[in-house]
Structures are given as C-alpha cells and as structure tokens.
Specification:
Layout lengths: L16 E4 L12 E8 L2 E6 L3 E5 H4 L9 E4 L3 E11 L8 E2 L4 E3 L3 H10 L7 E11 L2 H7 L3 E4 L4 H5 L6 H9 L1 H7 L9
Parallel strand pairs: 5-9
Antiparallel strand pairs: 1-2, 1-10, 2-3, 3-9, 4-5, 6-8, 6-9, 7-8
Helix pairs in contact: 5-6
Length: 192
C-alpha cells in the first residue's frame, strides 16, 4: 500500500463535508461529496452536492415559478422530498445554521415568495431531491471501515461556485497530502 488511511476519522459535524473514498462500491455514493446537515445520536442527515439531475425546480412544483434552478439528487432516501441549502446572505425563517456561511431548510412558502419577488437568485440557493441518511451508529461503522473522509467546514464557494462534476476531485486535491493522491485514483484501478 502506498499510503495509509486515517485510523481515527472524526465524526462529521453539521456543515462538514463527507467525501467518499475513491473506490466505493455503492453507486449511490460513488465519488460523492455530502454536506452534513445533522449528526446526532439518532443518526445522520446530509445532501449530496455533486449529483445533478435532469430536472429543474419547475418540474417538481405544483405551481409555475420563473426560477430556472437545477435540482440535485440529495441521496437515495425519500427522493419525493425537496430540500434546500443557501448561504448566509439570505434570511429564511425556520432555517438551521450549518456553519458561518451556510444554512439549510426553512419556510418554503417564504422561499417561493422570495424567488418570485427577486429577493432570492439561483446563485443563493441549491435544491435537492431526497437525502442521504444513516441510522444511529451506521455512519461511524462506515468511517471505521475507511469508506469516507471528513473535511471540516464546507465553504460557500465550494457549494455554490464549483463545478459539480469537479467537486469531489477538487476538494480532495485542496486537502493536500495523501488526499491529493486519492483525487487522481482511477475509479477502477484494475483498468489502469
């Protein structure tokens, strides 16, 4: 082995990134970056940042919105639910702070009003169908098996400005050291 995995990967906290290891066998999470929205004794909830769908917001709402926002696949759980993340320049009632720059959830009626009135732009908010979830202790087991890396404190520009196709590689690359090596690891090393 060219390098060792971390032996004591910390539990992610809300606002952290969970990054899949390079050769994860689960197609739901292959080369994904997940923004952790909640992590407690009851379980973990997060949203995949880099799986774009072919849908936009108007495709899933009962009302027509003049808001051309693409939808991302937040994960394999309850893909009939809509979730959103936005940056702190926006104030939405009922929101939950993830860190200094990012918030999650809130009053969706207020979000729709803000979109219609132009107070909220597509650069301020990101929408997701479904979510990624782990029951109590499940994510810890996966971390101990080296299935994930944790990168503390997701930043606004990573969530909103980076190309979703390049996000996994870019974050690992920016982490440096062995993570930079992981970022160049082929999806199937047998084909290398």
């Amino acid at each position: 082995m060219l390098f060792e995995y971390d032996k004591n990967i910390p539990d992610p906290e809300k606002g952290d990134f969970l990054i899949s290891e390079p050769s994860m066998g689960d197609p739901n999470f292959e080369r994904t970056v997940i923004l952790i929205c909640e992590n407690s004794e009851e379980g973990t909830f997060g949203l995949v940042m880099n799986q774009l769908t072919q849908l936009n917001l108007n495709d899933v709402l009962n009302e027509e919105m003049i808001f051309e926002s693409s939808l991302f696949l937040g994960g394999p759980v309850e893909q009939n639910t809509l979730h959103f993340v936005y940056h702190k320049g926006v104030d939405i009632p009922g929101s939950m702070s993830l860190n200094k720059e990012l918030s999650w959830s809130g009053d969706f009626e207020e979000v729709k009003w803000m979109m219609k009135s132009g107070m909220l732009s597509v650069n301020d908010i990101k929408f997701f169908l479904g979510y990624s979830g782990w029951s109590s202790g499940q994510l810890r087991d996966e971390l101990d098996r080296q299935s994930w890396f944790v990168r503390k404190n997701a930043r606004k520009e990573e969530v909103f400005d980076m190309n979703h196709d390049a996000l996994w590689k870019a974050i690992l690359n920016n982490m440096g050291g062995k993570y930079k090596l992981f970022s160049n690891y082929p999806p199937d090393p047998r084909l290398n």
